[in-house]
Fold each of these.
Amino acid sequence: MNQFLVFVKKECLHIWRDRRTLFILIWMPVVQIILYGFALTNEVKNANIAILDQSKDQATLAISNEIAASRYFHLIKTLYSFKDIAATFREGKTRLVIAFPVNFQNDLLHTNHAQIQIIADASDPNTANMLTNYASAIINDYQQSLLKNEQLPYTIKTEVRMFYNPELKGAYNFVPGVMALVLMIVCAMMTSIAIVREKEMGTMEVILVSPLKPFRIIIAKTIPYLLVSVLNIACILLLGVYVLDVPIAGSLWLLIAESILFTITSLSLGILISNSVRTQQAAMFTSMMSLFLPTLLFSGFLFPVENMPYALQVISNIVPAKWYYIIVKEVMIKGLGFGAVWKETSVLLLMTFLLLAISIKQFKIRLS
Amino acid sequence: MAEVVVEHIKKTYKIKKETFTALSDISFSVDAGEIFGIIGPDGAGKTSLFRILTTLLLADSGKATVMGLDVVKQYKEIRRSIGYMPGKFSLYSDLTVQENLEFFATIFNTTIEANYGLVKDIYSQIEPFKKRKSGQLSGGMKQKLALSCALIHKPTVLFLDEPTTGVDAVSRKELWEMLHRLKRDGITILISTPYMDEAGLCDRVALFQKGRILSINTPKGIIKNYAYPLWAVKAVEMYQLMNAILKEPSVESCYLFGQYTHVAFKNRGGEQAILEDIIKRGTYTQVEYHPIEANIEDCFMSLMKD
């Protein structure tokens, strides 16, 4: 036991003495949370638009004002002819042009049939889609207001309620995502580097020729990173709750327990990687390619897994982060209990046992 | 009793489809309490041999035992009671001197205090720097620390892979003095070195070259087996003189050795006359020549030629 503890102490000293890496380990989650929280968001605000108004009547002015006043749009230009539209888009600043034909109000009131053209820069299709939806909604609102005093015979009104996230905040989605990402990097990448460093420095040669059991070497190397990860989890949760206003709807202890389970899964992955590479660079590269990217792409945090081709959906199942991401969303955002996540938890457990078994079996008791 | 027995060990490496033989059919044995030197140039296979004996590497074929334990099957028992100091500095450079020693003491289930007497001579020299990180030590101090770490658990057999490479003359001398004290404590020591002059400090030496053993003997025995009469020659025009000597058919070999050229003759008798004859034929200044006793390096040179 003493041997084991001294190894853990040594490992902690390595981390503690390497201040630069420690700094990165502690600050990375903080910076990521703040970046995703305030800078990298896929909500559209203040998109630049231009208006081409050929009728300049009461109706078009009212609609233009509504649009310009909305927080989604920012009117930067007034156009005077259709020819200007293409030129405006080519400048690249304008995302959307709203064009009113001549006699708009006349047509609306007398023929009951008026047209507005909404032209979007679809080089970014998602944004274009969102902006046209927002604009259409504003125009519909105006139309409703015209009918305020008249009774329509049949109307269907949609009452929309956004469950779990009434304000449609992006933070509800990326806090779980960042948790998965950070734990994956800290645990898997750092452990694999830590083990490979001993090989590279030649110290592995000396500790192999000692009574230490390989199993204990592995476990001792992972424990300090487990501690750092717990610190990271605490950091992310505190920032999420107090800075980004993402509540922890479910049990905090369940969330922490699941996080520790995922941490252990990532640690086992790190050990597995370290078994098969020889240099720290290779360990870093392998972790990046086999962990960071799949976590980013297949966890469902940036791109919904349901939208992927079937083959990729199948692949996403072997990415541990996907299961953890689901668990965090269920527990943290939806406030569900263990009953809702036992399947995902079992998948993670199974993965962990498998990975640990393979990496301990594969651990080289000799120099290859 | 033989503490280390090596029988027909073979080891080859494959580097880009090319097979490279590190050890070809090596056999020898080391007695308990002996200082056994493995002497050979770089690439002779010394490190491979040490790694096989310290259970770090598997041989392609052959058998080896350390303290009667098989290096393949009983590697766990061997690891418990040997000390190994690799050729490359293999301590934690971000830990201090004391932390390193404590770490290695603890993983071998002992404490610095328990075996302090064993490492005292050498560790006391680096003790003033015990709070310094081992990466900031000088080359010699690093080796002393590494040796202390390899010794702290009082191993039965000590494997030292080139402990004196890159170490100054004074530290080398101290290291050898310490090895002789350890020998008195009953520790068997296998030491490899590329320096021929250290061979004389071992009880027995094996001369290695290209994975083969050229000779195993006591240092005296190796010198005694040297068959040729040997002379040392010196002149200002050394290069011309060497060329002239090499043309002489009765000369076995001729090579530079420090300030002198060593000349080995094929047959005993008349060497002085031959040398004088060569010198007369050219114009050499400040010529000096006298017969000498062969040293280990001369023996190695001649063995290498055979």
Amino acid sequence: MNALWENLSSDFLPRFLAGMAVNFEIAAIALIIGLALGLLLAAGRLAGGVFTAITVSIIALMRAAPTFVVMFFLLNAIPRDATLFGVPFALSGVMTVALSLVPYSAAYVADAGVDAIRHLRAGATHGALLFLPNVTRAFFVMVMSSSAGAAIGVTEGITVILRQAEQLANFNDRLVLFAIGIVLFGIPLQAGFMLMSLFQRRFGRSTVEEEASA
Amino acid sequence: MAAGMRSFAALRTTAIVLCLLVAAVAPARAKTPDAALAELLKEARAKVPEACSQPNVDRLIKILCAKKIRVGIRDYYPLFATRAGEKREGYEVDVALAIGRMLGVDVDFVRVNAATRIPLLAEDRIDLAIATMGHNTQRDGQARFIRPHYYRSETTVVGPRELPVASMLDLPGRTVCVTVGNGSNAELVSQGARLMLFDEAGVLPDRLKDQTCTLAAQDDSFFAKYFTDEDFNSRYFQKFGFAQVPWGMAVARQGSAELARALDLISQVFHRDGLFVDIGRLHSIRLGFLRQQQEVWRKPECNTDSGTSNPNCVLPPLNTALQPTSFAADVTGFEQWVEERTGVDVTLPMLKTAPAWSLFKDGVIYSLILIAGALAATLIFALMLGAAMGSRSFVLRWPARLLTIALQSSPIVLTLVIAATVAHSLFALSTETVLAAAIAALGLTNGANAGQAIGEAMWSLRAEGANAGLFGRALSRAATQIVAFLVNASKGTPIASFIGAPELLSSLTDITSFSSGRITTYTILLVFYTAVVMVVVWLCGKLRQVLENRQVAA
């Protein structure tokens, strides 16, 4: 154990925290784009007729597309010298991971958005507000999923841990380091989920009361 | 006296006969390459200027007529050929100038790159290419390579000095950064290394420095310049080398027979006399191969005018030809058919060569095994952890809860790495071990979440006063969650490639590392996984129906 502390570089924690910030950054970008796209899809799904059929198919495809494969697809399908309307469109590693999460994020927002719009139409404002904790849940799921960036060299939290682990020769030291990683990732995640549960319970209760009085 | 005279005559006759016999049996004494070169140039010069106006004369004559040789050379390949304004320097530049001196002509440099060096020879826009060109069997049909080779590179694996990597045996499970299309990638793949692909070699040193890459593999001639930098040299080390490729100067296959012969002899003389070593030392390139070749070309059997055709003296080209599949021609026909009708450039490398086809088939099979395994493991862990979390026993319930919290807090990539680390410590490294570790990690992660839903369903049923058939009813109640995590498990299977599971993503990445057609390849990958996940979603929908019907019946 002492050997582990000796081998942990002095800047490990700052580097890990900087890496975790990248995880949050990726999730935030994916969520923002997902919100824009997902709400459009939700509106399309409720529009009726051919729009509904098309958007339902798009959402089903987005839901089925594995994030990791989408990431490699984006990485390899978009040329490094690509341009969009004359503007260079080369994706950075962070943007590649963020965009790979967009199909999940947009499909999730579309599903949650449809529920929220239905609640709003029924006059259940609190029910519609459940959209917020649901989106927060998706955000935390994406923070965890953004660790896929380690596979393409994005310096996020897990990448920092794995690089540190490569310097450790002892098997037990590696396991302890991984456990530290789980704790460090777990703290904000569990805190976020607890906060969201509280929020959800409060609004859930209000929604039941709202629906009972309606 | 007469007897003495007779015996002397007999002795003389015997000596003459013996001399004649020796002369008849012994081979004619071979010419030196210098003499052969002098004779060849003398004959060529004798044809000048009469032959200068004749069509279809050999390029050697054309060069002597023009009094200059057009040499295709690179503009930026540190230590070998660089250009600053009009000033060129490097090993290849000086070799070209030395050849010009031997021929008695000026050297006219023409800029070439990897894509243009052979076409410019064929179009008669250069006479000679000295442009960091590896001599392989594929290129042998496109240009006439000069032998002996003027340099030999190898792929070198570079990493931090403190990293314990010394040979190919240390590579399994490690990620190596490489450039797309590098001929040595296939060998790294076959040794169990994971590849991270980059378009250009120029980014590799920076990716080593910012720790994106722990190891990078590239031509040693590329890294040579970086190792002259003190800081880089103090931090990184060439761990080992492999895939040696001889570099050849090349001339056009047509109309260059005499020029090629002259250059063969010049190259032979340069090696024997140590000129290549001297020029190499001047530019700080690695000298091992050049010194070795000097020894070879000093041997009497090689130091002859026929030495360049002696297989004991010259090196063969690198054999890079991949065996085509039996249906490769049909695939090429299909690609052309699609392009003609749609204008879309479809390339299907996984169907055209035997190694790629084998990797592709294995990838599909392992992907399906992985998905089936992940689904089964998710279901089993969900049932076990669900029963434990729904149990009234504290001893069963809390360990299951703690495990679930830990698994929920661990990003899937980390869970996979932990599973692989534990598996490698217990079992020998093999495809089966990696697959089992990936299945366990995916099953535990998703099974813990689904199990939590089952446990919560059991407690909610107890709260409603239900006691009989509690577990079965909890399964029905948690059907949506179970199905959601089963789908999630199947979607997560490609991540197993991160720990080296040989599923389709891994296979296609390996295929694209030594062939073209990346866009088509990754599109096929995306379609495959999306289709498989949609099938899983459909099957899981059926399962949910069954579970929910049971709940209604109950």
